[in-house]
Write a structure and sequence with these properties.
This protein is mainly α and 220 residues long. The protein folds into two domains: 11-59, Arc Repressor Mutant, subunit A; 61-212, Tetracycline Repressor, domain 2 (Orthogonal Bundle). The chain contains nine helices and no strands. The protein has helices at 3-33, 40-47, 51-58, 61-85, 90-107, 109-121, 126-148, 158-177, 188-212. Helix 2 (40-47) crosses helix 3 (51-58). The longest helix is centred in the N-terminal third of the chain and has 31 residues, at 3-33. The termini are far apart.
């Protein structure tokens, strides 16, 4: 490697480090303050970089937000696709998707805070709706395949079950973010385990029991 190539490599590496610092700072600040209340200067201060550097790398606050949501959605989508590819029962696939979302809260609370605040509670740009739909469509696809394999009741409407399933997880995560369900740092792991167990119970036992006792017409 010659001197010029070495310099270019170092410059690229430094830029990547700066971009990542800004990216992580943006997640933290927007999660805490909300998109509308966040200024570029807030992100720059949190990242410990010059105000102009944020604009130089990302262009605008809206673009930062879109990059964050796009990356998070990509990770969620890849995980859902990986789970879907496994040779397991449909209900176990849904349970593992639920586990992953709650594990994400444990690993990166700010990500869940941002998703709850910006996509679920206060969608502010049209891309938010498209991002949410990408995740919901993948879950609905899993349920549709489960119906074809007769692992899901034939009368179940995939989109409705998707909303019931995802909505349950959404509300539990929202309850943590908004402190409706108080949680201490010392018992956070235990509470998440409880939530994961509740969702699995709904999928494997409670839902199955309620469906078997539910009288319905084949025409419905």
């Amino acid at each position: 490697m010659n001197i010029e190539s070495s310099l270019n490599s170092n410059t690229t590496q430094k830029r990547q480090i700066s971009e990542r610092k800004i990216f992580q700072a943006a997640i933290k600040v927007i999660a805490e303050q909300g998109y509308h209340n966040t200024r570029i200067s807030d992100i720059a201060k949190e990242a410990g970089v010059a105000y102009g550097l944020v604009y130089h790398y990302f262009g605008s606050k809206e673009n930062i937000m879109f990059i964050i949501l796009d990356e998070v959605t990509k990770k969620f989508s890849e995980k859902i696709e990986k789970i879907d590819s496994e040779n397991i029962h449909t209900l176990e696939k849904l349970a593992r998707i639920s586990d992953y979302m709650f594990d994400t809260y444990l690993a990166s609370k700010e990500i869940i805070q941002l998703l709850v605040r910006e996509i679920i509670k206060e969608p502010n740009i049209n891309k938010d709706k498209l991002i949410a739909e990408r995740i919901l469509d993948k879950i609905s696809h899993i349920i549709e395949n489960g119906k074809r394999k007769k692992e899901i009741y034939s009368f179940i409407e995939p989109k409705i079950l998707t909303l019931v399933f995802f909505g349950s997880i959404q509300m539990l995560l929202t309850s943590l973010v908004t402190n409706y369900y108080p949680i201490e740092e010392s018992n956070k792991t235990q509470v998440i385990k409880k939530f994961k167990k509740q969702i699995r119970g709904m999928l494997y036992k409670d839902m199955d029991k309620s469906l078997k006792s539910f009288s319905f017409s084949a025409d419905v």
